[in-house]
Amino acid sequence: QVQLVESGGGLVQAGGSLRLSCAASGRSFSNYAMGWFRQVPGQERESVAAISYFGGTTYYTNSVKGRFTMSRDNAKNTVYLQMNSLKPEDTAVYYCAAKPVENPFTILTRSSLYDYWGQGTQVTVSS
User: Fold this and answer.
1) Neighbour-count burial for 42-62, b at 16+ CB within 10 Å, e otherwise
2) Which entry of 58, 74, 114, 124 is 20 to 30 Å from 51 by CA?
3) Is 81 within 8 Å of 95 (Cβ atoms)?
4) Predicted pLDDT at 54
């Protein structure tokens, strides 16, 4: 069992930056594929970024490429999402998710494939 807790959300002006963190507890998550998702009320949860368990493989949805960077520190059981050049359309609740995998290069972009979820952190970008 893994518990995930996100932090770092808040209110920022367009063009600003935020760094989200997701701390995992319960057991080592070094063999977990991790993902960041976001959701706006009334819309489906959207995959934003994903990372393999050694961090060597990453995925970004097109709308955040070049602006967001996902990373992980397995020694600290934490994944991060550095968000730069934020836009009002980035406003959403951001969730991190985890899934134990065998292949160290696996990245997962579908929410239904993840086993564990955090409670979410609100990101609001004002224009």
Assistant:
1) eeebbbbbbbbbebeeebbbe
2) 124
3) no
4) 85
DSSP letter, residue 105: T
Low-confidence ranges of the chain (pLDDT < 50): none
Q: Residue 63 carries which side chain, given as an amino acid letter?
A: S
Task: Dump the DSSP string for 62-101.
Answer: GGGTTTEEEEEEGGGTEEEEEE-S--GGG-EEEEEEEEE-
DSSP category for residue 14:
T
**Are 34 and 96 a contacting pair, CB within 8 Å?**
yes
Residue given tokens 């995998």 in the structure block: 101
| Selection from 110, 81, 79 nearest residue 94 by Cα | 81
Q: What's the first-to-final CA gap in the chain, in angstroms?
A: 40
**What does the DSSP 8-state code read for residue 106?**
-
Residue 73 exposed, middle or buried by CB count within 10 Å (0-12, 13-18, 19+): exposed
